[in-house]
User: What shape does this take?
Amino acid sequence: MTSFICDQIIDFEAASTYEAQDIERLIEQVKILVAESEESKVVILLRNAHYLTTRAFVILYNYIQEPFSTNAVFVLVSSDKSRIFPPLLDLVEHRQSAA
Assistant: This one.
């Protein structure tokens, strides 16, 4: 398990902001924060992730698949794992087993 002290945390509540454009804005915010400083550590807490639309999940999935800075960590929190985009779950579980 990788651990670090973060410089920024983005608390994203998916129950109220669950559309594709909301995730696009979140990703832009992450890109800006990471670009500001190569040493900056950003944690994105995505609460109630199961509320995201399929399109929002696809956008998030595509971003997480891209090679991006290791200075950003996404934490998805959900009370209903069965409603999380299956390819995203597969990706996360694969990366966990590889670590």
